[in-house]
Specification:
Distance between the termini: 43 Å
Protein name: Prolyl-tRNA synthetase associated domain-containing protein
CATH superfamily: YbaK/aminoacyl-tRNA synthetase-associated domain
Largest sheet: 8 strands, mixed
Number of strands: 8
Keywords: Aminoacyl-tRNA synthetase, Ligase
Family: Belongs to the PRORSD1 family.
Number of helices: 5
Pfam families: tRNA_edit
CATH class: Alpha Beta
GO molecular function: aminoacyl-tRNA deacylase activity; aminoacyl-tRNA ligase activity
């Protein structure tokens, strides 16, 4: 499995433009929101979900969205979704909790993880993702993100994802 250094080299070797900034480790969106980054881009929430049939979904949504997992399961044709364990995160994508991003799909050699990106991010020109470790962020343009996915034979399934209703 590739690590951060190898991933950044792959991006460079494949002439996918990016910028990278080192920062303190962050474990969640609340900690990420407190970072003062020079890089620009949408901060994305990344979740690895699984269903009872053994299907895995990497969900990418806006930093502030609280997903309705019941409605999302219905949208994806699943009975029920749950969060994948830290062991599954490492086994499938080679990352620890807090380090997940679509860049980890570089390690999905078995193509077991389906990438679902929230349509709410569609108009964003730049994205911020962790490069397999949570102590750095990479800024990619939408075009560079698409180029990266093509080079690793993955595709993004852009869908409007359901927000949990506030009671």
């Amino acid at each position: 499995m590739l690590g951060k250094v190898e991933l950044l080299k792959l991006l460079d070797d494949r002439q996918i433009p990016f910028s990278c900034e080192q920062h303190d480790s962050v474990l969640n969106m609340a900690e990420s929101g407190k970072l003062n980054l020079v890089l620009e881009g949408a901060r994305c929430k990344n979740l690895l979900l699984q269903d009872k049939n053994g299907r895995y979904y990497l969900i990418v949504t806006t930093a502030c969205k609280s997903l309705d997992l019941v409605a999302l399961a219905d949208l994806l044709g699943s009975k029920r979704l749950s969060f994948a364990s830290p062991d599954k995160l490492m086994e499938l994508l080679g990352v620890l909790p807090g380090s997940l991003s679509p860049l980890a799909l570089v390690n999905d050699e078995g193509e077991r993880v389906r990438l679902i990106v929230d349509y709410d991010l569609h108009a964003e020109p730049w994205f911020l993702f962790h490069p397999l470790e949570n102590n750095a962020s990479v800024s990619l343009s939408k075009q560079a993100f698409d180029a990266f996915l093509r080079t690793i034979d993955h595709r993004a399934d852009w869908r409007p994802l359901p927000d949990r209703a506030v009671a």
